Amino acid sequence: MTATVAEPRPAGPAPLRNGYRFELVKLLSQWRIRLLLLVCWLGPAAFVAVVSLQSSLPTDTVFGRWMNATGWAGSLVVLDFACTWALPLLTSLVAGDVFAVEDRLGTWRHLLVAVRSPRRIFVAKSLASLTVILLLVIGLTASGIAGGLAAAGNGQLVGLDGSIIAPGDAASTVLLAWACALAPTLAFAAVGLLGSIVLGRSPMGLLMPALLALVLQLAQLLPLPAAVRLALPSEGFLAWRGLFTAPVQTGPLLVGLAVSLAWAVVATALAYRLFLRRDFTDLNYDGSARNILSGVLPLTALTVLAYGVIVVATPATGSGIEQAKVQDSLATAFAHLYRLQTRELGRPDVTEAQLQAAASCDKGGSRVADEGPGNDWRCVVSWHLPGATALGNAIYQLDITSDGRFIADGDGPKEVNGYFQVRTPIGDAPNPLWQFDVNIDLLTRTVKG
Amino acid sequence: MAAIPPAVRARGIIKTFGEVLALDHVDLFVTGGQVHGLVGPNGAGKTTLLGLLLGLTVADGGRLEILGAPVGRTLAVPDGVAGFVDGPGLYPSLTARQNLTALASLRESAVDASEALEQVGLTDVADDRVRGFSLGMRQRLGLAAALLTRPRLLVLDEPANGLDPAGKRHVHRVISGLAADGTAVVLSSHRMDDLAALCSEVTILATGRAVFSGPVSKLAAESGDLDYRLVTTDPDAAREHAAQTPGLRLVPGKNTDVVVHGSTSSLDELIARLVTAGVALRELGPVVPPLEAAFLRLTETDSS
């Protein structure tokens, strides 16, 4: 008698769904990830609630000065901080370690035997880390909003051109701003995946997104041309501010999104290619200089390409901060906020058209060109008072940063913008014209004449 | 439907890593129900060969069939193969049960985690994090992970590493039980006593080549003349008789011990002389066990 068995078949790879679940279980079992989730879901609410009730507000941060006026400002302060440090750091701690952890534990062979497809391992790990990052970002968003609304209420928000945004619109715009920040977060997560694969067990892999964020932060401080600034993946972390102007500053926003998504795609593709080529039998794998170059060079080339496209396809010139733009932005914001002050003081309403506000700005005196960032801008705003022939005048000192944001600091007269409070029929209230934030669109072209 | 194929049929396997020839025309034949030992000095190619069987790497030359299916140039071995090399590969932040449950869901396993844990005697610590496990417990958990898919070929790298005597007995019992049910087991070990206790056949690798492959009993015969240690009531008289026995020579040893080198027939004659002379024999045994001696002889010959 001859014993028989079924014909053996090559083992298929484990289903992607199962691999994804496995990776998610592994990530969520790490105390570091659990701690991050806890911090992201509770931290912003506590921070916003506490700060919103203070008399001293974080005025250096956009929307910080409005934190005790509306709950929506709190979430935007959290977003601004997250874009500076928290989101790159989160991507470091999640995506930057998702491959390297297998090197540290020596589990690659075990995983390959179980899954039988390096491709599926890559996809499962990438999706799992993306899921965790999304959970963290959702936590930051929800927590910041909840803390703000609980502490400061559902009030109207003052935009970055002084316009008033109704609570309903503020809610949708705040959510949209967080959604926009996801694109650069994806880019940094992809860099994290790449670092994790390129550098193996080396802790440098873990630090890649944070290191990149630091380098880009330093670059953003430099007086770079607007086209270079917009070609960097960190632009997406700033461009959401353009949502809070009317009209929306779509140019930097779209460029920021496109550059970020291009970085995400290219870095992920590089990570995928290097992952499939690596030797899983080497237990001491720590990456190689060649791999580092094959990761860095294409991303540098992408930045150069993005710069070229921006120069050709957009009107970006110089620093993007020109005298006419500064004057227009300041006059527009002043007019919007003048109306707000008028309402606070209980005076008859006026419209921006009636005010016909205009600004005249000079940077650093006659020896300095009136363009570019700096804290030596001095402006005089003039406006028409309804029913009066005389023009109103107010002086502002501007501190313009190279990303296009400026703080206008009122210098008098006292009754208009020289004092931090105004006396209203119901008591003293913050003076909206005393100090305010404005965001200049770096991509628009000034029409001279 | 086809006749039961051998679990492993490897002919002339070659594997290189750059300039290094890790496997040099290696043959391996393992049938279902057989426990086959792989032994060799460090760098002999054991892990590479086990990696080939698990589909972690592909051969550069030769022909490899696993469970009757030819393994080609892609990393694809048939269903029914499980095991580990270079440690069991566990996640310390998960409990033993979570490790197995996650793996079971990954491969849609036939055996559930509790059953596998019970098989290797880890039920009591099933819900403890692996972070706190000893090396022996990790080895047993690694074995449990391999059992989840009811493998027909089980590949284990040093499965008894770090096990205490009770744990080793348990693992031996599990492996023997699997073999009795028809599973082919290929395992590597540095310990010849483990191989002698478990394996019916053994392959010795040295510098990438198979210098012996066959039954364990045949390997013992390869050991040739051995050193034997005798403990007697009169060591001086024993040395005198040993010196006079044809085919034996004295080897320097401790004061109370007598160590001689020669064949078993010469040793038989020495024992007869000692008994006749009234010298009582308290202990007699090879200084190095026959299997180990055979291993050393074969691998040293190859190295030289």
Which strand order do you get reading across the main beta sheet of chain A? 4-5-6-7-10
The count of β-strands of chain A is 10
Instruction: Give me the side-by-side strand order of the main sheet of chain B.
Output: 7-8-9-4-10-11
Count of helix runs of chain A: 15
Descriptive report:
The complex is a heterodimer of chains A (449) and B (304). Chain A is of the alpha+beta class and 449 residues long. In chain A, 57% of the residues lie in helices and 12% in strands. Chain A contains 15 helices and 10 strands. Chain A has helices spanning 16-28, 31-52, 71-94, 100-105, 108-115, 118-152, 167-198, 203-221, 226-231, 236-239, 250-277, 289-313, 323-345, 352-355, 414-418; strands at residues 4-5, 157-158, 164-165, 358-363, 374-384, 391-400, 405-410, 421-424, 427-430, 435-439. Chain A has a 5-stranded antiparallel β-sheet. A two-stranded antiparallel ribbon of chain A has the order 2-3. In chain A, strands 8-9 form a two-stranded antiparallel ribbon. The termini of chain A are far apart. The relative contact order of chain A is 0.10. Mean pLDDT of chain A is 89; it is low at 1-8. Chain B is α/β, with parallel strands linked by helices. Chain B contains 10 helices and 15 strands. In chain B, α3 (113-119) crosses α4 (135-147). The termini of chain B are far apart. The chains are: A alpha+beta (449), B alpha/beta (304). The A-B interface holds A 2-12, 14-15, 18-19, 21-22, 25-26, 29-31, 105-116, 280-281, 283 and B 1-5, 48, 51, 54-57, 66-69, 75-94, 98, 102-103, 105-108, 145. β1 (4-5) of chain A pairs antiparallel with β1 (2-3) of chain B, so a sheet runs across the interface.
